[in-house]
Design brief:
The chain is α/β, with parallel strands linked by helices and 387 residues long. The chain has 13 helices and 16 strands.
């Protein structure tokens, strides 16, 4: 029996994945796994029994990844599960920014008591003349699951689409429309774009990436959309760009008190993945990742441990080992198996930065002695008996 704790309201679709071997619990200390959306977990203390955390979404800045890795807690996310919901909001926001729709709606509401409103709108609407997006150029920074979908949708709407992504995967490249032109640098993209949309993870490298120099390289009157993370854009540089008119509109899904004081800002309250469909898709993906890890020891879409998949165990036993990525670890593991006269039927080992993960399928039943000997090796973080 596995116990899981939901820290936020998670779609009941997880029940289509979890069977009667899974039981919800309110006590986090009893949980084998946690499913979370937005709850901030950096101050949490984790029990030794906690095996995994699954984020029913993409961003994981609310989870202490390094501390989890040090405790052998595998953290998953759900890349692509909410991509369509975010894509649709980006396209809607692109048009909102180009056509001044939010400001125009606000003007109508502010004048709702005007008995001559029907006449006055003919004069009032002149303040909200916008531009069409057809034939304009859109620059997409980050061509992952969301950025690629945005690029393809903009192409269908008649825009000239440019993209940049130094880590563009083969899979994502193949999914792009042939009309999307992939450029070598952001500076090149800035110079050809009427609209720019950002779709990047927040890292030390991307924090404040859209800075003074970036704005100076953009075309005058550009509309900038940020649906990745607010911190990707340097706040002071943005303020200067909006005040000068270099940026015509800043459209973001991250409402911030200081940002909202600036002119020509359109902000939504983090609505990107707030659709029924996205919540269902994220919940299902998170539950599937947890189930495969808990039952088979396989890791898919982890953000702190490497992907490692050995399928379903067909041997008598299976053991997984999470460990530090240091030299000669495999030699130490295989020596333990050899000393106990246990044959390894299949072995899978993958590394990611400072951490590594092994799956051993063996031709003997797993014993407590074997588990204890593996745990005793310096650098081993967690050993699990799967079978």
């Amino acid at each position: 029996m596995y116990k899981y704790k939901c820290l936020n309201a998670i779609s009941s679709a997880i029940n289509t994945v979890f069977d009667d071997q899974y039981e919800p619990t309110e006590d986090m200390d009893q949980a084998d796994a946690i499913i979370v959306r937005s709850a901030k977990m950096h101050d949490f203390e984790f029990s030794d029994d906690l095996l995994a955390i699954a984020r029913a979404g993409v961003g994981v800045n609310n989870i202490p990844l390094e501390r989890c890795a040090e405790q052998g807690i595998v953290v998953f996310n759900a890349p692509g599960a909410n991509a369509n919901g975010v894509k649709e909001l980006v396209i809607a926001s692109l048009i909102n920014g180009a056509r001044n729709i939010p400001d125009a709606i606000r003007w109508v509401k502010d004048n709702a008591d005007d008995p001559d409103l029907a006449k006055d709108v003919e004069k009032g609407k002149k303040k909200y003349v916008g531009t069409e997006i057809k034939g304009k150029s859109l620059g997409v920074i980050g061509l992952g699951a969301i950025g690629g979908m945005v690029a393809n949708a903009a192409d269908v709407l008649g825009m000239n689409v440019y993209g940049v992504d130094p880590f563009l995967s083969v899979r994502n490249a193949l999914s792009l429309s042939r009309n999307v032109r992939v450029l070598r640098s952001r500076d090149e993209l800035y110079g050809v774009s009427d609209f720019i949309t950002v779709h990047l993870h927040l890292t030390d490298e991307t924090r404040g990436m859209i800075d003074k120099d970036a704005f100076e390289s953009m075309n005058d009157g550009v509309i900038l959309l940020n649906f990745s993370r607010g911190e990707v854009v340097d706040e002071q540089a943005l303020a200067d760009a909006l005040e000068s008119g270099k940026v015509r509109k800043y459209v973001t899904d991250f409402a911030d008190p200081e940002i909202m004081k600036l002119p020509n800002v359109i902000a939504t309250p983090h609505l990107g993945a707030s659709t029924t469909e996205a919540e269902v898709n994220c919940a299902i993906m998170a539950a599937e990742e947890l189930r495969d890890y808990l039952e088979n020891g396989n890791i898919t879409n982890s953000v702190n441990f490497p992907a490692c998949n050995a399928g379903v165990c067909r041997s008598k036993g299976r053991i997984t080992v999470a460990h530090k990525n240091t030299p000669a670890m495999l030699n130490k593991f295989t020596k333990v198996f050899s000393d106990e006269n246990i044959n390894i039927a299949n072995m899978t080992n993958q590394t990611r930065g400072d951490y590594a993960y092994c799956i051993f399928d063996i031709d003997s039943e797993t014993t407590d002695l074997l588990i204890d000997d593996l745990k005793a090796i310096d650098g081993v973080i967690r050993v699990r008996k799967i079978k």
